[in-house]
Each structure stands twice: as C-alpha cells, then as structure tokens.
Fold this protein.
Amino acid sequence: MKFVKALASATILAACTFGTASAADLVVGFSQIGSESGWRAAETTLTKQQAEQRGIDLKFADAQQKQENQIKAIRSFIAQGVNAILLAPVVATGWDEVLQEAKDAEIPVILLDRTVDANKDLYMTAVTSDLVHEGSVAGKWLVDTVAGKPCNVVELQGTTGSSPAIDRKKGFEQALSGHDNLKIVRSQTGDFTRTKGKEVMESFLKAEDGGKNICALYAHNDDMAVGAIQAIKEAGLKPGKDILVVSIDAVPDIFQAMAAGEANATVELTPNMAGPAFDALAAYLKDGKEPPKWIQTESKLYTQADDPMKVYEEKKGLGY
Amino acid sequence: MTSTVRTYLARLLPQLIALTMILAAVSIVFPGFLSLEIQNGRLYGSLIDILNRGAPVVLLAIGMTVVIATKGIDLSVGAVMAICGATAASLITSGHSLAETLLVTIAVGILCGIWNGLLVAVLDIQPIIATLVLMVAGRGIAQLITEGAILTFNDPGLSFIGSGSFAGLPMPVVIWLAFGIIVALLVRQTALGMLIEAIGVNRQASTLSGVLTPVLLIAAYVLSGLCAAIAGVIAAADIKGADANNAGLWLELDAILAVVVGGTSLLGGRFSIAASVLGAIIIQAINTGILLSGFPPEFNLIIKAAIIVFILVLQSPRFHTAFAFLKMPRATAKPTEREAK
C-alpha cells in the first residue's frame, strides 16, 4: 500500500513537473450509486463514453446503494492520487469528512445529478438538472399547444413526498398559472411505475365521464405515461389525439409511443451529466478557472416532430 | 345443504359487511361507482376495475392462506412475481412460443416454492427467515434477468392474459376465479384442508399421527410459488413489460393483510380461501375508492389504514364479547328474588 501511495505521489509530482496535465493523462474516479434504474445505467454508460472520447482514464466504482461503499471508494481514489473525483451521492448527508479529505489532498470533487448537504467549499461544482424547470417546460408546451382552448388536465404524480414529484408539480403549475383555460382536474400519485400509472389513469377515465372531460395528461415520468397510454387505449380513446400526453425523462420507450402518435411530448432529463463535468474540469485544470457552484443541464423538449424513431435508436443502446 | 350454505355465510359475514360498507361509502363520494356497462364486448366500470386490479393480490392471498394455515408465512411472493414476470418477458422476446413461455414461467414459480418448502420442512428454518432469503435475493435475480431495464414485449398472446377478456370479464378475473375455485375444491372436497389445518395447530402431533408433514408443507409453499408465478405473468402482461424493480413490490404484505382481513389466524389452523379472496377484494376496493374520490395523494395511506383498523376491530374477539354483552337482556329489568317476595 505504501508503495502504491509513493508511486501515486511520484506520478503526481511528475505530472506537475512536466507542465500542465493535458486531458490525455487525466485520471478521474467515478463513484456511482449503483444500478437503481434504467436512467442510472444510461448515466454510467454515457460517463464511460464521455471519458473515452476525451481520453480520460476513468476509474469506476459501483457502490450498490450504500454510502459506506462510496466513502471507501473516494478514500481509495484519494490514495491512488486521481486528478478529480466524480460523485453521484446516494444520500445528501454525511459527506463532510471524506470531502474534507479530498480537499486536503487537493483533488477537486464534482457532484453528479444530486447535491449534498455540506459546505459548498468542499466540492468544486454540482452538475444537476433543475426539476422545477423540467415541469415548467412541460407546462409551457401544453399552454402553447392548446393555444387558448379550454382544457382539463389530469396529473400523475411521482412518489408522494419525493423531490422530483414536488418540484415537477410546482414547475408545471407555475407554467399554467395565468392561463385560466387550463385546469388540473385530478392529481394522484402513480409511484413512478407503469402499473400504478395504468391503474390510476383507469380511475381518472372513469371519474371524468369515460375520459370525455379530459383533454391532456401530464405525468411526472415517462413510465407512468406509458402505463396510462395503455389505459386510454383500453377505454376506447386515442392517446395523443383525444387526450394529449406530456411527460418527463425521455426514456427510449416513450419515443416509440411518440413515433406511433400515442404520446405528444417529453422533457429530457439528460443522462449525460459527465460531459459538462469533464468540460468544467478541463477548464479548471487548464487555467485554474473555478466553475460556478451549480451547472444546470439542459431540459430539452422532444415532440413528435423530432424524428422519435431516430432518437429511440440512439438511446436504446445506453442501458436504459 | 342449506345448513352448509348458512355456516359458510356466517363465516364470511364480517367480510361481506365490510365490503358492502366500503362500496356504499365510495358510491356516496363518487355516484357513478356502481354503474356497469358493456363496452367492446366486455363489462366496463369501477366494480370490474376492482376485480381486475385486485387479481395479483387475490392470487397471492390464495397461496398465502394455505401457507399461513400451516403456521407459516411466505414473504417471497412479491419477489417471485418479479422473477416470473421477468422470465416470461425474456422468453417471449427471445422468440419462444407462448405455451413454452408459460410452462417455463410456472415451473420457475414452482421451483421457488420448492426452495422455500425445503428450507422450512426439511431444514426446519423458521418460515419468516426462510422466505426472507428469497424475498431479498429474488428481486436481484429478476434484475439480472431483465438487466435492470424494463423488458417490454408486444406478443398479442401474452398481452391477452393481462388485458384480454373472456365471457365479458377481463382475463385476470377469469383466471383468479377459476384458480380460486379449483384450490378451494381441492382442499375442501378432500381431506387435504383438514391435514393442513392439523399441521398448523400442532406439527409434531400431526407427524406422529401419520400425516406426511414435510410433503404437505412443501406442497403449501409450492402452491404459494405457483400463485405468485401466475400473478407475476398477469402483472407483466398488463403493462406489456417486466419491471424487475417494481413488479410485486410490497405485495407480500398486501397478501398477508388480505388473509388477516379474511379472518384467518396468523397462528395457523382454520382457514378459508373464500374469506381471503374477499379480504383481497376489500383492500382493492379501498384502493380504487381512494383513487376515484379525488382526495390528495398524501391522504391515501392514512385513509387505507383507518378503514383497515376499523375492519380488524370489527373482527376482534374482544369486540364480539362486548357486543354480545350489550345485547344481553338487562338484569335490572327483571325483579330480583327478594323483591318478588
């Protein structure tokens, strides 16, 4: 172990002596949460791809949903003397000590996709999406699409109390406020799953006169929308035409539905958090420019006009 | 014959009263609740939704009842659902025929049951621990099969099991009705039911009096695994995809609750399949009722808990004694002996 440490510090010393480190000999450690969802699998795939494109040597550690594994991984990255650490934190608290160790070793830490409750000096930057903004992009699309016509909206919320559910609801309501033609008539939780999305949509359809009172569906994630689309079809209505469908995440399956005309729009939660992180890191290593504390990823809107089949082909290999 | 019907009704009375009260309450909050119509050649309405959405828990409750009657418990059913859903989806997408897919999936469910049964009957591990193993590991196995993603399929045959209809009823309802009747007949028209109850009351005594305890115990867990396999196929067919992370999640608890609401004791012994099925339907009626009522989702679990506590109180022995006491003729109304003189 001592030998490795010595070797690692020698390497750093060498790197420092022979001028600024170019991307070619960068070593970056990545502590990933684990495989909790298709989206996270896609994030891992894209992070590896992005690192390869830039010639960065990525050390990957899967924490299997345990913070203690992430802390161990970070300590071992520090011991190996990596140039930077990417961290997708499994929980928000309890990071101060290990982040301080990284800071003492002068290794910049970049948070991916989630933030932590720690002093902002302890990490370089956080690359995340803005959940409220995602909701408002979806809401704005609906406002523009119905163009002043009266429209009753039903909402499938995420898991009650989870931050995506709270924020995506808030953003959507913000976008709708001031447009009295749009009204949220029913809102229930579908727990982010297809089964519950379908079950809750069935009850919405029964409750709103067989679906005749519903003009649009807003789902907090694509999976619930996919379930709801099946419920709409089984009730004898045409999703995408009789009932507009807008959701968030942009997973591959929703693009298939869009290609079939059964879904109308989705807002992307990009799994490419590493790209902006590596860019910020490169700029920092080149001329010491500190990036802002929060780098917001783009919340891109996809509609049926964006060649959904092509996007589906691009996305399906990412491990969603 | 009428006396058997009467004892049967008396056994199911608390459940029937609870169900009627819930249906009445929901139809006050949501007037169109009880209406039924024929749409696309099948019955359509909220009542049908309850029977249809309740299918997985009804099936799990059937198997769970028999396991609980042996003084056991099967925590792994939710995970077995996920495994079997994933198996069915991966077989059908890799080009196997529907018959092969279903046969292998059912076999996988039975295998899971044999595993649980062996741990309980042969190795004598406590059922809650023995089945906990598969509950934890099972979801991992399912995730391995689907590789962590939702495995979608478009096979019309397999989808039919989830959303097709037969004789005006949704397929899941037809399946659980048929399956429930077969199991109920099997345990009640033969001595099987009584032997199972005997094991639940006293396993050692049953063994000593010549009951093939290990075989029957394994059979109980196999039945539970089989039920979970069918439920898993229905759940996957319903959304045309196998979701290893969420399929059957926490449904083992709903199944146990259905058995308890059905009035079967967790200490084993006497059981009723019909009552457990009613219990599962009661739970689903509450779920569907909450969705239709339009309350904010933050209230869902509180309402559900309150109703279930109410039903359990209605069933409790203490409540029955208190009720019987109130119904007793008032002693003060009669003149005492001394006054009569």
